[in-house]
Amino acid sequence: MIKIDAGGSDFRELNEKIRAAEGDCEVVGCLGQRFIGAGMAGKTIRVRGISGNALGAYLNGATILTDGNAQDAVGDTMNAGKIVIRGDVGDAAGYAMRGGAIFVKGNAGYRAGIHMKEYREKIPVLVIGGRTGSFLGEYQAGGRMIVLGLHADGKPVVGNFPCMGMHGGKLYLRSDCKGVVFPERVHTRPATAEDLNEIQAPLEEFAERFGYRFSDLIGAPFTVAVPDSKNPYKQMYVAN
Amino acid sequence: MAVGESCTPMNAFLFWKGLVTEMLKEGQVRIPSGCAIAAVISRDGKRMSGERIIEAMKPMHDRSNGLGGGFAAYGIYPAYRDFYAFHFFFDGRATRKECEAFLKERFEVVHAELIPTRKIPSVTDEPVIWRYFVSPLRSAVESEQVDEREFVVRTVMKINSAINGAYVFSSGKNMGTFKAVGFPEDVGAFYRLEEYEGYCWTAHGRYPTNTPGWWGGAHPFTLLDASVVHNGEISSYDANRRFIEMFGYQCTLQTDTEAITYMMDYLLRRQGLTLGEAASVIAAPFWETIERKTDSDDRRKHLWLRTVFPSLLVTGPFSIVFAFDGGLMALNDRLKLRSMVIGEKGDRVYIASEEAAIRAMEPDAENIWSPAGGEPVIIRVKEGAY
């Protein structure tokens, strides 16, 4: 692994060094540099320190690993690849992601998975190990979002107003969701065996990466939220 | 950031393109912006130099664009702690003389001096920058039949709205703000902040897309000992301004941050609300969130606050640090459209737009977390320690 010292570099300089490195690299001493790994493919990037906003933006197949927390907009519009975060993530994680997977061991801020989308075989996956802030999955148009609530510290797994504007994809909450208020245009149900089959692979990977047992993860009640196709949005603003 | 009405978007565009050559001052031109904020406070009241807070602004450099930076520092003037410290920008000697004459009609000036600065290439076109440590003349206060703090507020409003070319940008006791057109780290060097020691510091980096003609538009905005640094852009500016101007506040700079500063003064000093209640006014919960509250006293209180002060609800994105004598409050808009992170280490609490900024101040900061939208985080220095 090639070692790159981020100390003192701005984001452009740092990304040029990462791009120029042949093969995998370890970036040490990060302090807020944005867009680390932007658009990159075919390598693993290990990030030490605090990455800046939009870590792995437009990621196109590379794998990014970080032990610390990540700031806002992790995986902004990513297309393929993986981002693995052992700490917490800021707001808007997985913003408009359209492929690949993001695994977060800790908590997520507001608007995780905002405007996630999918097309045919490209189905993005966002897994949050802890709890999330309000507006989870805002305007979700596709993909699978999974919130496990593994260390919720007695707080609600999700904040206010989840699934606002949801019109595609699937949200999984590892909770019976008592007390969670979903919008009218969203249909919720206890997860069926078929629902759970769809998330087996990402949950196995989550368990393996962060040292959990898959059986513990899957062994709790899950709630699934999907858009209610009988109650479409066409009359949301005006009746025409 | 600024919200304007006297200037059309086309004028602002032409100005930006250099096609309107007359320099418009702050308040005559609209300036939308991005911004970065940071703060540190010692709960034990231990004073620290300005070096750390300057470090915090460096990793957030790209959030600003060099058109505004500033700092507020508390506990920096212990030798003059009983006097109001007025920091002034003047456009020249004549204005200073005129303003000084006005000041002396109302205050005893115990000390006046140039604020020390350091010439650096990245901060240019500085106005004349002075500070005055003053004590209100009792006879003048009595003749206006107001209390001393209201008297000071009226003086500041009068100078800022009526004396052309003079601007009071700080008016509290044992605190001061330092702001300029420039990147915040350069502004910190310009004002030699490493030479000051305070128990609380706040900082701001500004990202307007247009150039202000003057330094007054940089943050923090202050009134008495209260100061506001703000990242965001509020869409309720005009509704808020119209309300607050009914009570004698003059929004001279068309900036929403100035309006927030006066709104907080109105709610806290004049209406006697607590910080938490003021937060519930400006970042009020949604009606349906209030409706679902299980604590009926709490529900009634929020209903009351929203009903009595509807014009002081601030909509649009903001994260602010509101600092005052002996403490600070961090607050996000109710939708949380801006980021804000909090951490701590020992007796110090750190707040910033990004965790990286906290790590720049304290690499081993602990308990990093982000408050929810509308959730005030209030830190107070131990009684008697400031």
Description:
- The complex is a heterodimer of chains A (240) and B (386).
- Chain A is of the alpha/beta class and 240 residues long.
- Chain A has a domain of 148 residues: Glutamate synthase, alpha subunit, C-terminal domain (Pectate Lyase C-like, 3 Solenoid).
- Helix content of chain A is 13%, strand content 26%.
- Chain A is built from four helices and eleven strands; from the N terminus they run βαβββββββββαααβ.
- In chain A, strands 1-2-3-4-5-6-7-8-9-11-10 form an eleven-stranded mixed sheet, sandwiched between helices.
- The N and C termini of chain A lie far apart (59 Å).
- The model of chain A has no long low-confidence stretch (mean pLDDT 94).
- Chain B is an alpha+beta fold.
- Chain B has a single domain, classed as Glutamine Phosphoribosylpyrophosphate, subunit 1, domain 1, CATH 3.60.20.10.
- Helices cover 30% and strands 26% of the residues of chain B.
- A seven-stranded antiparallel sheet of chain B has the order 8-3-10-1-16-15-17, with helices on one face.
- In chain B, strand 13 and strand 14 form a beta hairpin.
- The longest helix of chain B has 15 residues.
- Chain B is globular, with a radius of gyration of 20 Å.
- The N terminus of chain B is likely disordered.
- The chains are: A alpha/beta (240), B alpha+beta (386).
- At the A-B interface, loops of A face helix 12 of B.
